[in-house]
Amino acid sequence: MAVQLQATSRESLAAARQRLEARTDAPGADAAGIGVDLFAVARLLHGQRPLRRLLGEGSTPAPSRIELLDRVLGGRLRSASLEVACELVGARWSQSLDLVDAVELLARDATLAVAEAEGSLDDVEDELFRFGRILDRELELAELLADTGRPEAGRLALLDGVLAGRVSPVTSTLLHESVRMPRGRHLDVLAEQLAELAAARRQRSVARVTTPVALAPPQEERLLATLGRLYGRPMSLQIELDPSLLGGLVVQVGGEVIDGSVAGKLATARRVLPS
């Protein structure tokens, strides 16, 4: 995920993610339950600024912050979830909003761990990416889903109507939580970042490929092999159709764009040729 943190917060987050992974990998772990609980904690901290400042700022000793969290949430969370939350609150953060980012990211990690255990990460990544593309095209839908001035129940009902039960429970949970707490973020970008997070769990980088026609499986395999050699790491393809390209491909990996489309070459020719 594209979460920008200062050094202190990055270190705390990295340690917390390692501990969470050990928990969710343990036999009998309730990763889904931990995800549900941590999403609820993130919403609470986001909505309650005084509480967030008390729990997320280092001016209060760590034991006091943990004690406060236990008084507020003890008995309302699963024991494993409370342990994770207490560890986060007891860590050092550069600013209190970083604590919200960390809780939310660990909630997503726990939720994606369910898909990983089920072997459905590929499907989740694809569903998230395609939903992001839908929102990118349907600006009014994206605005309605992200409008926190509208009742949450109505926004979630709208989301359910769009999804129509066609996505996995993990994808549904991640999108529901994004709609519940958009935090001023564009939902299309957020959905694509979630897809990247799913890809990262498979230790893959994401290549966004725009093509005028669907690629056949052998073509996808060749493209994956070529990109893997070029970037020196395994890749995951997210493919979008755009007939206006006329031919060829546009490939984006991170901030790098390789435009091999016919439309791109024509545009380049128009720029360099004298008028």
Structure characterization notes:
The longest helix is centred in the middle third of the chain and has 23 residues, at 96-118. This protein has a 4-stranded mixed beta sheet, with helices on both faces. It is globular and about 65 Å long. The chain has 3 domains: 1-118; 120-202; 205-272, no CATH class. The protein has 13 helices and 4 strands. Helix 12 links the parallel strand 1 (205-211) and strand 2. By secondary structure, it is an alpha+beta fold. It is 66% helix and 8% strand.
What is Rg? 21 Å
- What's the pLDDT, averaged over the residues? 89
Strand order of the largest sheet: 2-1-3-4
* Helix run count: 13
Low-pLDDT sequence parts: none
Helical content (DSSP H or I, runs of 4+): 55-70%
Percentage of β-strand residues: 5-15%
Give the tally of structural domains. 3
One letter per element, helices H and strands E, the order comes to HHHHHHHHHHHEHEEEH
